[in-house]
Amino acid sequence: MPSMSWRPTRRSAPWSSPAPGASSPPVSTSTSSGGSESPSSPPSSDRWHRTVLEFPLPVVAAVNGAAYGGGFDLAVMCDLRIASTSARFAHPEHAFSQVVYAPLHDLVGGAVARDLALTGRVVDAEEAKTLGLVTRVVPEDELLDDAVAVAREIARAPRAVLLRMKEKISLRAGIRFGATLDL
Fold this sequence. Notes:
The chain is α/β, with parallel strands linked by helices. Helix content is 37%, strand content 11%.
């Protein structure tokens, strides 16, 4: 059986926040009802949510610093999350918009997910580990190496096994692929 080759890069994810003054990454403009959004409403994040949720192989997140709003959503949609000691998670948008709830609920349970989604409170890395939001916390300078080591360990399994395992994970999570804010 051929081995999987994987070469890590030190580039940021395509969903990272743009630099001040730069334009945002392109996103879908579909709404939960399937119609188009009004010009005054912000664009939907469905396209990048779906990209992560439907990716057929395991996705490892390395969280360094603030993961607020969409960054928090992106982290919870990944299969594994490793955080640096400086990582923080919050949903400040709870005051003016919906949050992606189902994947968070799947990770931390209903009571904690409701607390985080309804209050928007900030959770530091150690509390995130205690809550089950991340699997481990490492020093900032070790984060990328640790995440790459985890990805390499996962990649040791045959691709067919990983594809089937990811399929089972998605089925168990009960994720229906509609508008992601409906999750």
